[in-house]
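Field log, afternoon session.

UNIT: design team B
ACTIVITY: writing a sequence onto a fixed backbone
BACKBONE:
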C-alpha cells in the first residue's frame, strides 16, 4: 500500500461564517465545512471554533491524506510574515498570533493571510486573472476590499493595507463610514449598504438582502435609485484605481458577483464613462465566487511548505 497523498487544511474566517476545506496538491477536495463564526461569544470562542474546524477537517480526511500545513485567512489588518492577525473589526480581535497558535495546537505549520488578497491570489493563479500581469480583484460583500495584482503578484503594501478600495471617498461630504471617513465606496456599494440604504429610503424595517434589492430594480424606483448610486460609487472608485495603476483586467468577486451582467454591464459603462481619454480595462466576474477565499488559503499553505499548487 503506497503512502497517502499530502494535503492542506484551508479556512476562510469571516465575521459571519467559517468555511474550510482539505485539498490535495492537484486541487482535489477531500472534505469541507461551513459553520457560523461565534463573534458575539468573544475572541476566545472564535479561536476555539477555528481550532475545532481544523481538527474536524483533519479527522474527516485522515484516511485519505496526510495534512502537512494549515492556511487561514481573515479580514482586517493581517501581517502574514509574522503570522499575526493584527486587527479585525468584524471579528473583534487584536494582535492574535494566529499562525503560532494553530501550529502549536495542531502540530503542523500554519500560514495566515488577508481574506481578499488570498481570494485575489486564487483568481490570479487559477481563475479569471490567470496569466494577467496587471489586474485588480474586488470583493463585494458585507464590505468592499481589493487585491492589487501587479507583475503577476498580489501586493500587500508597506503596512499590509494595499487594496482598501472600499475606503476611497467617492461622495464628498457623504454618509459616514464605519471607518470614520465620509462618502466611502463601501458605504454606498457594498451588499450591506444596498440593503441598509433601501430600508432607509423606503422607511421600512422589512428584512431585505442585497440580491433582493437587485431583483426589484426593474419595478421598484427606490431599489433602482439605491442600485444606481451603488454603481456610480463603485465606478468612481474603479476609475481612480485605473488611472493610478492601469490594470488590464478588473475581476469582481464576492456575493454580489453572482448578479452577473445585472451588475457588470452598468458598472462597465460607468467605468468607461469616467475614462474619457483612455480605454477602460476589461471587467469580469471571478471564476470562484464565494470559494475564492478558501482556495487562496490553500495556496498560502502549499506555498508555505514549498509545494507548487
Amino acid at each position: 500500500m503506497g503512502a497517502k497523498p499530502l494535503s492542506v487544511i484551508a479556512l476562510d474566517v469571516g465575521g459571519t461564517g467559517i468555511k474550510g476545506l482539505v485539498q490535495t496538491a492537484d486541487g482535489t477536495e477531500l472534505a469541507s465545512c461551513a459553520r457560523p463564526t461565534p463573534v458575539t461569544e468573544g475572541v476566545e470562542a472564535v479561536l476555539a471554533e477555528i481550532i475545532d474546524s481544523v481538527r474536524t477537517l483533519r479527522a474527516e480526511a485522515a484516511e485519505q491524506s496526510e495534512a502537512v500545513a494549515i492556511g487561514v485567512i481573515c479580514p482586517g489588518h493581517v501581517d502574514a510574515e509574522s503570522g499575526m492577525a493584527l486587527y479585525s473589526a468584524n471579528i473583534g480581535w487584536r494582535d492574535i498570533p494566529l499562525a503560532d497558535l494553530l501550529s502549536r495546537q495542531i502540530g503542523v505549520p500554519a500560514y495566515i493571510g488577508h481574506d481578499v488578497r488570498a481570494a485575489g491570489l486564487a483568481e490570479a493563479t487559477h481563475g479569471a486573472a490567470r496569466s494577467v500581469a496587471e489586474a485588480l480583484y474586488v470583493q463585494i460583500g458585507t464590505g468592499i476590499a481589493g487585491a492589487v495584482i501587479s507583475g503577476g503578484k498580489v501586493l500587500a503594501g508597506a503596512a499590509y493595507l494595499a487594496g482598501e478600495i472600499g475606503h476611497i471617498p467617492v461622495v464628498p461630504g457623504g454618509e459616514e463610514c464605519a471607518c470614520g471617513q465620509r462618502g466611502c465606496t463601501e458605504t454606498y456599494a457594498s451588499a450591506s449598504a444596498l440593503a441598509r440604504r433601501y430600508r432607509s429610503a423606503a422607511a421600512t424595517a422589512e428584512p431585505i438582502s442585497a440580491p433582493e434589492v437587485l431583483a426589484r430594480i426593474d419595478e421598484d424606483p427606490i431599489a433602482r435609485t439605491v442600485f444606481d448610486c451603488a454603481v456610480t460609487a463603485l465606478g468612481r472608485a474603479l476609475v481612480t484605481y485605473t488611472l493610478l495603476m492601469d490594470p488590464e483586467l478588473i475581476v469582481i468577486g464576492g456575493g454580489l458577483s453572482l448578479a452577473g451582467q445585472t451588475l457588470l454591464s452598468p458598472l462597465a459603462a460607468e467605468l468607461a464613462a469616467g475614462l474619457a481619454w483612455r480605454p477602460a480595462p476589461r471587467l469580469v466576474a471571478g471564476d470562484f465566487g464565494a470559494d475564492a477565499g478558501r482556495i487562496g488559503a490553500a495556496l498560502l499553505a502549499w506555498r508555505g511548505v514549498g509545494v507548487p499548487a
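LOG NOTE: The longest helix spans residues 221-245.
NEXT ACTIVITY: expression trials, pending approval
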